[in-house]
Amino acid sequence: MANKVSNFSDLIQRVTASCLLHPLGSGRRFADDVTDTHSGEDDSDYEEHNKSEKYYDDDEEDEVSPAVIEQAKGDAYKTERQMEMVMLMSEVFETVSSMKKAYVSLQEAHCPWDPDKMRLSDMAVLAEMRKLGVLRERFRRSVGKVGGGGATEATKRTVAGLTLREVVAPYEAAMEKLKTEVKSKEAEIENLREKLKTATVLNGGGSSGRKSRSHPHHQSKKKVNYSSQLQGTNVLGVNLLPPFVTAVSPSPMPEVFESCISSVKEGSKSFTSLLLSLMKSAHWDIAATVRSIEASTTTTAGAPAAVRDSIVGPNHAKYALESYVNRKIFQGFDHETFYMDGSLSSLLNPNQFRTECFTQYRDMKAMDPIELLGILPTCQFGNFCSKKYLSIVHPKMEESLFGDLEQRRQVLAGNHPRTGFYGEFLVLAKAVWLLHLLAFSLDPPPTHFEGSRGAEFHPQYMESVVRFPGGRVAAGHVVGFPVSPGFKLGNGSVVKARVYVVPKSEL
Question: Are residues 106 and 187 in the same domain?
C-alpha cells in the first residue's frame, strides 16, 4: 500500500512538471508520460492511475485552458498579421515597379516628342503614386494593431490617435490657406467694384442716350459687353462672379484663336508694306532682295536659288518680304518662351501654366504695347520684341533705311524707341505674342505647320495669297514659298497656312 501511495505522488509530480514545462503540450505527451510511468505496474495499479489521470485532466482543463486558448489566439493573430504585411509589401513592390515603368515611358515620350504618349505616361505615374499613398495609409492604420493581445487598449488608442492627426493635419493646413485666399479675393473684388463705380460715374452713364446709334464704336461696345457677359466680367475686365464660382471661369476657345490669327495677318501685312516702302525710298534692288529671300526658303541642295530667275511675279514682292518677316517672328513659336530661356513650366505644371497664359492674354489684350514697354521695358514681352527686332532688321538694313543705327542701339541697351517704324513692328509683335499665349492656354495646344517649297497645294490646309479667277487655284500649281504658318486645333478645325503658289514648271 505504501508503494502505491509513493507511485501516486510520483505521478502527481511528473504531471505537474510536464504542465509547467510544456503549457501547449497535447494530450499525447501526457499520455506518453503516464504510459512510461506505469509500464512495469500491474493492471490494478494502471486502472487506479487512469482514474487519477482522468481526475487530473478534468482539473487541469479547468485551470490551464484559458491561458492556452489566449496564447493560441495570439499565435493565430500573429500569423494573420504576418500574412497581411507580406501581402502589403508585395503590393508595394508591384506598385513601385509599375511606377518605374510609367516613368521610363514618360522619359521616352520626350525624345522624339510625343505629347499624347507623354500625357498618358504622366497619368500612369500619378495613378501609381496614388496607389502608394493608399498603401501608406493602410500601413499607418495597421500600426495600431501591432502587438496583438499583448498591446494595451491605451497604447492602441495612442497610436491610432497619432495616425489620425498625421492624416488630418495637411487638410487642416490647406483649409486655413484657402480661407486666407478667399478673404484676399473678397477684398480684391470689393476694391474692383469700387473702381467700377468710379469709372461708371466718370464715363457719364446718363449720356448714352445722346450718343448716335450709328457711332462707329457702338457696335464694338456691344460686342465687348456681350463677350464680357459670357466671361462673367465687365468692360473693364473686373470679375463680377462670386468667389465660389471661380471654378467655372472663362477658358480660351478655338474661335478666339482663329480671330487672333486675323490680327496677326493684318499686323504682318501692315508692317511689311511699311518696310517695302522704306526699301523703295532707299533705292533698294527689290528684285535682288526677293531672290535672296527665295534662296533662303529653298531646301534642295545644289546651286542656290538666287542664280535662277525669280518665281515672284510683278507687284508680288510684298509676299516674299512678308514670308521673310513671318519666318523670323514665328521662329521658336512651339516653345513656351520662344526659346528665350529654358523654362519647362508647361510640362511641370501644365494646368497652372495654361491658366496663367490665358490670364496674361486677357490682361494684355487691351494694353498699348508702347505704354506697356515704357513701364516694363525688360519684361518677357519686351525681351521678345527686342530679340525679334534684331533678328528681322539687321544692321545693314537699318543703316540703309534710316541712315544710322540709333534704334538698334536703344534696343540693345534694353529700351524701346518711340518711332513710327518700331511702333508698327510692336503691333505685329503684340499680335504674335497674344497668339502664342492663346496657343499655350488651349488643351491640347494647337500644332502649327507651313507649306514647304514644291509641296502640292491642298486647299483644305492651304490658302493662296495670289487670287485666281473663280477663287480656285488652277491645276498644276505647287507651293513656291510659305508666307505664314497654319494651325491645327484640338477640336479638329484648321487655320489654313498662307502660301505663294506658282506653276510646277517654274520650279
Answer: no
